Amino acid sequence: MKGERFSVEAAFIERDLSREVGGVRFAAPVEMRNEWSHVRIKSKVSGAMLEDKLCCGVPVEKEVQGGRYEVKTINKWMFYADYKLEEEFRMYKNRAMVFGRSNRNANGEYTNIGKSGEAIRTGAGLYEQMDVTNTIYYNDFSLRLIEDALSAISEGKLNFDERVFVLRTGEHGATQLHKAILRETAGWTPLTWDNSSVNMVQKVSSPLHQNALSAGFQFTEFRAPNGVTIKIEVDPYYDDPERNKIKHPLGGFAFSYRYDIMNIGPSEQPNICKCQIKGKPEFRGYQWGMRNPWTGATFNMNMSYDEDSAVFHKMATLGVIVFDPTKTFSIIPNILTGNMR
Fold first, then answer.
1. Is position 142 within any domain?
2. 55-64, long-range: CB < 8 A, 24+ apart
3. In this predicted model, what pLDDT tens digit does every residue of 11-42 receive, in sequence order?
4. Count of structural domains, the chain
5. Are residues 310 and 329 in the same domain?
6. Which pLDDT belongs to residue 270?
7. Which of 126-130, 214-218, 240-244, 319-323 has the weakest average pLDDT?
8. Same domain, 66 and 156
């Protein structure tokens, strides 16, 4: 039944005509509280691509003597193709660590099977690990929603000088928080501000009027009672139009209205770490036939295949770990319930 524990006692056999059973159980050489994710990419091009040119060059930095760098412009297409491969693979890794979803079911099994017949295992990403605790879903946003939540996790746990929280969000989230602070302070801000200190109104040049003025400001910080200080930080990931797909009724993507705190309270060690198996960096490999457009090599006496092309493979094993999810905090639009995108 669910929740029952078990262990291996022995490998029992019949008295007569028994066959081989049992085996030695080994501990894994590496272990994660999460699960390792494995990503791989390839790029295949014609062997003749080395001679193809770009109409505009690609700037490349090259180290010279004295630790200085010299920028050269290269107009060969292969350098651009190589750059795009590195860029795409970097995004593979970033998205796996940030948005990855564990595919292990309630029985601890992996049901996704690859071409080799082996199970595909993916580890939980940053947001999935964070969302297991200190998570609030909202329909109507207000400053009090954030104040009450941060006060609850501060009272009796953090000193007054330790209650400074940086909320990571998107551009729409930053605007939403600004408007919430503006509504909260609308009654008393005219009594406390003067233009000489904050420069809300400034003279500008315009053909529309000889005495043209500009006015405006944005709140990026709010100081609540009992030492709670709320700061804002905009992360471009929250507004990525390629990765985020769910629209928000107020405009933009719903993920842009999400607010996250990555580490609550003082800590000697980081609460979130990227992980990699020691001594096992990314793997790279070439396959090429008659000509190698990446290196310019020709006359391959040990061809991988008869086609005049080359394939570049990259593979990496990686993961991310949140040591203490209770030190993270998220305020998420209700439209994203059950869907991190």
1. yes
2. 58/83
3. 776 666 666 667 666 555 555 567 888 899 98
4. 2
5. no
6. 85
7. 214-218
8. no
| Residues 93 and 43 grouped into a single domain | yes
Average pLDDT over residues 33-52: 84
pLDDT at position 252 is 93
How does pLDDT run across 58-84, given as a tens digit for each residue?
777 877 777 788 888 878 788 888 888
* pLDDT: which is higher, 244 or 195: 244
Structural domain contains residue 329: yes
Q: What pLDDT score does 186 carry?
A: 74
Task: Tell me which residue of 262, 257, 264, 182 sits closest to 229, measured CA to CA.
Answer: 264
Task: Write down the residue that tokens 């159980």 correspond to.
Answer: 25
The stretch 294-302 carries a mean pLDDT of 82
Strand partners, 44: 311
Outline where DSSP puts E strands in 140-254: 164-169, 201-203, 213-215, 221-223, 229-234
- Phi, psi (rounded to 5 degrees) for 291: -135, 145
pTM: 0.76
Residues 6 or more apart whose Cβ sits within 8 Å of residue 161: 227
Residues 258 and 167 grouped into a single domain: yes
Assess if residue 192 is contained within a domain: no
Residue with tokens 């010299």: 70
Q: Are residues 265 and 207 in the same domain?
A: yes
139 and 230: one domain?
A: yes
Range of the domain at 281: 37-105+114-124+275-322
Whether residues 158 and 256 fall in one domain? yes
Nearest 10 degrees: Cα torsion 52, 57, 62, 66 = 150
**Paired sense of beta strands 229-234 and 164-169, if any:** parallel
In a shared domain, residues 120 and 242: no
- Quick check: is 266 in a domain? yes
The SS3 call for residue 273 is strand
> Is residue 233 scored above 60 in pLDDT?
yes
Scored b (16 or more CB within 10 A) or e, 5-33 reads eeeeeeeeeeeeeeeeeeeeeeeeeeeee
C-alpha 68 chain-centroid distance: 32
Which pLDDT score, from 0 to 100, does residue 1 have?
Answer: 57
